[in-house]
Structure formats: structure tokens, C-alpha cells
Amino acid sequence: MEGFNNSRVSEFVLLGLTDSTELQIFFFVVFSILYLITMLGNCLILLTVISTPHLHSPMYLLLSNLSVIDMCLSSFATPKMIVGFLPQHNTISFEGCISQIFFLHLFTGTEIVLLISMSFDRYIAICKPLHYSIIMNQRVCVGLVVTSWTVGFLHTTSQLAFTLYLPFCGPNIVDSFFCDLPLVIQLACIDTYILGIFMISTSGVIALISFLLLLTSYIIILTTVKKHSSAGSSKALSTCTAHFIVVLMFFGPCIFIYVWPSTNFLVDKVLSVFYTIFTPLLNPLIYTLRNQEVKISMKKKIHYQYFNLGKTAPQYPVQ
């Protein structure tokens, strides 16, 4: 806590996405709707997986954890950004700013490892189907989830290990809608070149390597499916393409922002919106709602809850 006491800055000013009043009202409405849809969609997926016994498999356990991370990633800054569109609500305390940095790197670091775990799960299921139940058992799946959160925590701890003790004596203006490390460390009263290099090596390079690993896994999966089935190749290509779009939307901004942290362009704000708002919204659509088994289970749950409010439960044909 000594780092907080030594800081001369008690709060930061977040400039947000725009200073236009008309655009602020528009963004307030749009992002409020997107945030609500994101939370409801991921919540519905999580409840469906938990309450449906036949979905208690490694793949769906990883998907449910992805929904949890997406809700967290969407909540660490979006509510504050929405409130920031209102007059006189564009400041954040020093402690709140540090908390945003902590949770940002915790959730993004965790999601990176979880996406790699999901890719590994699909690789085993498609390329080694006879060994899937042995390799991807419940213990391994739980281990992957625990590992993802552990790596995320270690990553964010390493990012803040030195940031907490930097002297912030002004200015205190952050040109974004949330506090992020590349922008905040530029406000320190000392030379942060070494810290910037450390940040690049632990965030930008890790994101780049993870992206290349995921790209390689998708290529291997598609190559394997194409060799065995031309019919399955088309379906796998469609699925992998959809997955890759989300991966690109998540990793692309991370790689750009953290590999070139000294830049300060409007495009950085736009890219930040992608992995904090749009990616958590698209993940349930791409990874889960395209899955027929999950869609059927969700429809049954919704119908059951509707008819359970005083109506007779509907009859479903035997699949």
C-alpha cells in the first residue's frame, strides 16, 4: 500500500471515446444494450451447461468457463465507460485505475490460456478421437481451467509489481475509456522505458506467440479433417473460420496495442472496444450458439421455464 500513499495523483481523468455530446448519447444507448445482451447471453449459456447433465463434458466445461471470463472481461470497464458518457462522470480514483489494470490483465491472460485449452480439446477430439476420453478426462479439464486462471493471476501480478510504486505526480489524463498499462505508465514522473520493454515481452510477445499457436492448431485440424472426409471438411472449415474470427478480434488488438505501446492513436480506442466489448458478445454466438446440442438444451430450458409458470410443459419428440 506504500505505492498508493506515495502517489501525488488521487484520481485520473478518462477522456473516453469522444467529446461529442450527440455521440456520447448514442454510445450510451448502444453500449448499454450490448452490455446487457452480453451478460444475459453468457449467463444463459452458463446456466444451461450447469443444469443439463449431458453437457457436463470437457468441451462444455471449457465453454462455460469462457462465458464466466467473458462476463468478467465485459464488466471490468464497460459499466464505468457507460457511466462516463454522462456529464461529470469521467474520473476514476487511483485505486480504481489500478484495479482496472489488474482485472484487465487477469481476465485477458486467463482467456488466452483458455482459448489455447479449447483449441487443444478440439485437436484431440478431431485428430485423436480414439484417445479423447483418456486424454481429455475430467481431471485434465479441471487442471486446464485452474491453469488458465493461475497463469492469468501470475501475469497480472507481474504487470503491477513495479507499476504500483511508480511516482505519479501529473498529468493525470488517460486518453481512453479505461485504464490500461501502456497509457498509465506514460504518466509516471520517471523514465519508464525499461518497464515498457518488460510489458512488451510479457504481454505483446505472449499474445503473438499464443495467436500463432492457435493458428497452427486450426490449420492442423483442417488438414486432418480434409484427409479423412470431404463432407466433414466443409463443416470443420466453417466452424474453424468462425472460431478464428473471434480469435483474431481478441488477439489482433492485444498484439497491436502491446507490441507498440508508445503509440497513441484513435485506432487504439477502437481496438480496445473489440476485445473488451465485442469479443465477449461474439464468443457465445460463435462458440456455443452454433452448437446444435447447446441450442436444443437452451430452447428446452426456456420453454420449461415459460410453461412452468402455470402452463403444461410441452412435449418434445425423442431425438
Beta-strand proportion: under 5%
Spatial extent as radius of gyration = 22 Å
Mean pLDDT across the residues is: 80
The top-level CATH class is Mainly Alpha
- Determine the CATH topology: Rhopdopsin 7-helix transmembrane proteins
Q: Name the overall outline.
A: globular
Compact summary:
With 319 residues, the protein is mostly helical. The protein has 12 helices and 3 strands; from the N terminus they run H-E-H-H-H-E-H-H-H-E-H-H-H-H-H.
Highlighted features:
319 residues; mainly alpha; Rhopdopsin 7-helix transmembrane proteins; 3-stranded mixed β-sheet; 12 helices; 3 strands; 73% helix; globular
What report would you give on this structure?
It is a single chain. The protein is mostly helical and 319 residues long. It has a single domain (2-292), classed as Up-down Bundle (Rhopdopsin 7-helix transmembrane proteins). 73% of the residues lie in helices and 3% in strands. The chain has helices at 2-6, 21-51, 58-75, 78-84, 94-127, 132-135, 138-163, 181-184, 193-228, 230-259, 266-288, 292-307, and strands spanning 11-14, 91-93, 173-174. It has a 3-stranded mixed sheet with strand order 2-1-3. The longest helix has 36 residues, at 193-228. The radius of gyration is 22 Å and the shape is globular. Residues 1-7 have low confidence and may be disordered.
